[in-house]
Each structure stands twice: as C-alpha cells, then as structure tokens.
Amino acid sequence: MENYSKALRLRIYISSTDKLKHSLLFETIVYQAKRYGLAGATVYKGIMGYGASSVIHSYKFWEITEKLPVTVEVVDKEENIRRFYDKIKPFLEDMRYGCMVTAEPIEVWLYKEGTKRD
C-alpha cells in the first residue's frame, strides 16, 4: 500500500464469543486477512455495547464469560477489501447471532513496514 493513497476501511461488529466452528470469529477474520495479503487488520474489544438484539453487554468483573462487543478493522485498497468481504460474507451470514459490517473510504497518509520481531 502506498502513502497518500485511497483505501477502504472495513469494520465488522461482532461479539468476543462468536465462533466459526471451533475458532473465535475475530481470530479467523484476522488470519484470513493476512492470508489474502491485505495491508492490515486490528481487533478492538469494547467495554459496553448492544446491537440489533438490543441486549446490552458490558464488562463486569463478576461475570464468568466475557461476552463483549468486538470490532475488526481491515484496511486495504477498495478492490482488495471488496474481494475479501465476498470471501467472508458467507461466514457472517451463517452466524447464529447478529453482526454489522460497514465500510468507508479513507486516505492512507503513512504505511511504513517495521522490522520483523522474532
């Protein structure tokens, strides 16, 4: 990805407990993004939120399971993001619980590779 280029940011709103088979969904999405060679992906864990079900989930230290909102962001050129979304869309549509996917155009001002860590 080039500096000062146009790109697309894909955001996927799911739950920290959503799974695809036996793997956490957010992990599967990030590994798939890496596999498809996309520029980058980040997972954000929320402390409180709700979706279409209107059930509020929040962090409480006494809760046994941490069912929290999670946002997965993936950034790359628009055509790469659209192709990637077409690949993961069936997983999202087959989810038992709800999710939301958004996309917005962005400008990449700096994309610099770092040194690889061992």
Distance between the termini: 24 Å
Q: Classify the fold: give the CATH topology.
A: Alpha-Beta Plaits
SSE sequence, one letter per element: EEEHEEEEHE
CATH architecture assignment name: 2-Layer Sandwich
The number of helical runs is: 2
- How many domains in all? 1
Mean pLDDT: 88
| DSSP summary, beta strand count | 8
Strand content: 35-45%
Spatial ordering of strands, largest sheet = 4-7-1-8
- Low-pLDDT windows of residues: none
Structural class designation: alpha+beta
CATH C-level name: Alpha Beta
The general outline is: globular
Largest β sheet strand count, sense and barrel closure:
4 strands, antiparallel
> Helical proportion?
10-25%
- From the alpha-carbon coordinates, what is the Rg to the nearest angstrom? 15 Å
Give a structural overview.
The protein is 23% helix and 36% strand. It has 118 residues and is of the alpha+beta class. The strands form 3 sheets. The chain has a 4-stranded antiparallel beta sheet. A two-stranded antiparallel sheet has the order 2-3. It has helices at residues 25-35, 78-93; strands at residues 5-15, 19-20, 23-24, 40-45, 48-49, 57-58, 69-76, 100-108. The model has no long low-confidence stretch (mean pLDDT 88). It is globular. It starts with a strand and ends in a 10-residue tail after the last strand.
What is this structure, in a nutshell?
The strands form 3 sheets. Strands 4-7-1-8 form a 4-stranded antiparallel beta sheet. The protein has a two-stranded antiparallel sheet with strand order 2-3. Strands 5-6 form a two-stranded antiparallel ribbon.
